[in-house]
Amino acid sequence: MATKDSREVVIDATPEQILDVIADVEATPTWSPQYQKAEVLERFDNGRPKQVKMTVKAAGLTDEQVIEYTWGDNEVTWTLVSASQLKAQDAGYTLTPDGDKTRVRFDIAIDLSVPLPGFILKRTMKGGVETATEGLKKQVHKVLKG
After folding, report:
1. Would you say which domain of life the source belongs to (predicted)?
2. Cβ atoms 130, 108 nearer than 8 A
3. Cα 32 to chain centroid, rounded
4. Which of 8, 58, 90, 92 is 20 to 30 Å from 111 at the Cα level?
5. What is the pLDDT of residues 87-114, one digit of tens each?
């Protein structure tokens, strides 16, 4: 059964600037502690990552995942291609310009292939969603400040 969560944050940046930070997947482990390593396996013609292999550590489990990205003007989504601890994962960011800021919504749905107590799963998801929003916000501000 899939577990879902979502969260919104407002970031002082344009959607393009935010998508550029998300597209720098190799830097993700520097601002998202559950990501141990990220390697681009394939890129789209515009340079954005298409398929990425990641090592993720959460709830005491380490997983090798391959995910595939889909990029839009104001959104990016990804879906799980393969993993050992997950049956499925669908996630993404939707960016809505709001004056000189951007409202960022992060949505994620995962289906574990290993049993995990509900309270641990919820706590892990909450931490991941918080990093995906607040961690992204901090990283965008850091990149923009140089």
Report:
1. Bacteria
2. no
3. 9
4. 8
5. 999 999 999 999 999 999 999 999 988 7
> Residue 84 phi/psi, 5° resolution?
-100, -25
pLDDT at 59: 76
How far apart, in whole angstroms, are the C-alpha atoms of residue 6 and residue 105?
7
What is the longest distance spanned by two Cα atoms in the chain? 44
Give the closest residue to 34 by CA, choosing from 144, 126, 143.
126
Low-confidence ranges of the chain (pLDDT < 50): none
Structure tokens at 144: 């923009």
Please state the domain count of the chain: 1
CATH number at residue 74: 3.30.530.20
Domain around 69: 3-145
Phi, psi of 88 (to 5 degrees): -155, 150
Residue 139 carries which side chain, given as an amino acid letter?
Answer: Q
